[in-house]
């Protein structure tokens, strides 16, 4: 049975949810924090004892220093620190950088004896330097320096939003410089021979571990787990072309699992096998993939309460298995790095401890939400149990508004109270109610917006979309429990539908998207920002 992914295409719903509260989808505040932390940990960004001055306009010398570090040549520059400099405007601390830049042809200064140390750097100037570093030559017509930002967008190095911001805003800050540099770290050289991050790792300037921690060099996964929830999870591990599936579930309709491996290109079934959980509610099953031809395959899971008859999918087109002539592995999602950096940049803020604005504005509504939250969580002993109880309750109570999704109606329920009263909504209603109930329980919760693949869009894989030009089409939540953030998507875990004015009760509440790992979640969700409310 084809898994129904509930993704609203009606952008106006997300727009109404966001209002003017979300920044441009270039670097979110979260990802910007992670990028800053990466540059500091990698020693690519160093302070002056009073801070990093990230929000100040950047200077020509600051750009040159960062560029030399990106090239892994800071040690070489320091060796020239005590050599005489032809430039009279270079302070003592920067002599080595100016000397190296001149000797390497990176910058010849702005005059015979003037480097332009304190001159403000423009986005066009810094992008010109970076494009030259990765092999593009403006003197040979590869680009014009006045359009260097546009060239970076054309090459897919910058998003359209980021490029527009640089083009429209003449002020180019040190934060902009750091974010630009981060984008270029992963850009391929013109001849395809290398990347800046690869060179930095190869030369020992940056460790593999640090690059992996920030999602910069993830080209394969040998294992992946769906959830961190110990009561229900599924793990997949590949070793020596042997796929091992382990997990746990107490759901009655998951007594039996069916694993289906099918060609990603043609959809043709290659193997399907069933297995049963043990008396402790755990699964452990192995199957060989050594007989599969080279190529990419989806690994799908279906479940049933008995061995025969109809199975229902709960992991569909989410895991890509790649078989090569040497071995096999799981293909990481192309949005994993961005999702990971967003997640790492999370912090508890005051808005995370408040209900949504629409609920706060109505005293009676806020009281209803508080009482309902208390009722749902009255038997819970921990905050984790509370968010799980709220997740299950929302996924069971609310019905997905397919009439609105399919354009048959022009309005749907957006606020928590309207969702409570009418019981149907799309993702914005699910996530608003989830946030309000969790924050009413005294637990910080964010309302996240992003992009989700799904049946509504006709997309099965990230290769079907232009990742540089996405607009948000989905909303979910993240709750802060026990010192960490928990991802939960009550929309996707609900199987109820509202269609033709009728309520259709689903067969179950899923927990596939409760406490999801960033790895698994990234297979069909791209985080873009959080809602300020």
Structure description:
This protein has 19 helices and 18 strands. It has helices spanning 11-18, 29-41, 60-70, 74-79, 95-103, 123-133, 148-154, 160-168, 174-185, 196-202, 208-213, 336-344, 357-360, 363-376, 383-397, 402-405, 416-422, 427-440, 518-521; strands at 223-225, 233-239, 242-248, 256-263, 269-276, 282-288, 295-304, 312-315, 320-323, 328-330, 399-401, 424-425, 445-452, 474-481, 484-488, 497-499, 502-504, 525-530. The radius of gyration is 26 Å and the shape is globular. It starts with 10 loop residues before the first helix and ends with a strand. 44% of the residues are buried. Mean pLDDT is 92; it is low at 1-12 and 19-25.
List descriptors:
533 residues, alpha+beta, 6-stranded antiparallel sheet, 4-stranded antiparallel sheet, 32% helix, globular, disordered N terminus
Mean pLDDT value: 92
Strand content: 15-25%
Low-confidence stretches: 1-12, 19-25
What percentage of residues falls in helices of 4 or more residues?
25-40%
Cα gyration radius (Å):
26 Å
């Amino acid at each position: 049975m084809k898994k129904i992914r509930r993704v609203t295409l009606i952008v106006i719903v997300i727009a109404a949810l966001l209002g003017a509260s979300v920044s441009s989808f270039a670097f979110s505040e979260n990802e910007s924090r992670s990028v800053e932390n990466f540059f500091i940990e990698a020693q690519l960004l160093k302070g002056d004892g009073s801070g990093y001055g990230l929000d100040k306009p950047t200077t020509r010398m600051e750009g040159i220093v960062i560029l030399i570090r990106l090239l892994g040549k800071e040690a070489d520059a320091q060796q020239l620190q005590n050599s005489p400099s032809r430039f009279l405007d270079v302070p003592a601390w920067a002599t080595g950088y100016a000397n190296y830049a001149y000797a390497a042809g990176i910058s010849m200064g702005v005059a015979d004896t003037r480097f332009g140390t304190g001159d403000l750097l423009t986005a066009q100037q810094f992008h010109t330097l970076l494009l030259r570093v990765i092999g593009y030559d403006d003197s040979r017509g590869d680009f014009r320096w006045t359009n260097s930002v546009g060239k970076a967008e054309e090459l897919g190095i910058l998003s359209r939003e980021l490029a527009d911001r640089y083009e429209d805003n003449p002020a180019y800050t040190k934060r902009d410089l750091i974010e630009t540099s981060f984008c270029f770290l992963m850009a391929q050289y013109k001849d395809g021979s290398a990347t800046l991050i690869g060179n930095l790792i190869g030369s020992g300037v940056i460790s593999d571990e640090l690059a992996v921690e920030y999602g910069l060099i993830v080209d394969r996964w040998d294992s992946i787990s769906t959830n961190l929830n110990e009561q229900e999870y599924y793990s997949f591990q590949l070793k020596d072309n042997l796929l091992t599936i382990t997990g746990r579930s107490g759901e009655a309709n998951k007594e039996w699992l069916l694993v289906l491996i099918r060609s990603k290109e043609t959809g043709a079934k290659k193997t399907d096998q069933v297995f049963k959980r043990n008396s402790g509610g755990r699964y452990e099953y192995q199957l060989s993939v050594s007989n599969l031809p080279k190529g990419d395959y989806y690994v799908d899971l279906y479940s049933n309460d008995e061995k025969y008859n109809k199975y229902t999918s709960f992991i569909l087109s989410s895991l890509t298995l790649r078989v090569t002539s040497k071995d096999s592995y799981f293909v990481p999602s192309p949005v994993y790095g961005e999702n990971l950096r967003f997640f790492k940049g999370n912090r508890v803020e005051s808005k995370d401890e408040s209900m949504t604005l629409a609920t706060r504005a109505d005293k009676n509504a806020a009281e209803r939400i508080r009482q309902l939250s208390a009722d749902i969580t009255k038997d819970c002993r921990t905050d984790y149990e509370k968010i799980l109880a709220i997740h299950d309750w929302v996924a069971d109570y609310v019905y997905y508004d397919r009439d609105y999704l399919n354009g048959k109606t022009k309005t749907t329920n957006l606020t928590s109270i309207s969702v409570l009263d009418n019981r149907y909504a799309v993702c914005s209603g699910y996530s608003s109610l989830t946030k309000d109930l969790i924050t009413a329980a005294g637990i910080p919760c964010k309302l996240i917006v992003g992009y989700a693949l799904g049946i509504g869009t006709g997309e099965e894989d990230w290769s079907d979309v232009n990742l540089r030009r996405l607009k948000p089409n989905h909303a979910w939540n993240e709750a802060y429990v026990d010192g960490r953030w928990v991802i939960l998507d009550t929309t996707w875990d609900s199987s109820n539908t509202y269609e033709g004015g009728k309520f259709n009760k689903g067969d179950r509440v899923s927990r596939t998207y409760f406490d999801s790992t960033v790895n698994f979640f990234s297979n069909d969700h791209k985080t873009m920002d959080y809602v300020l409310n």
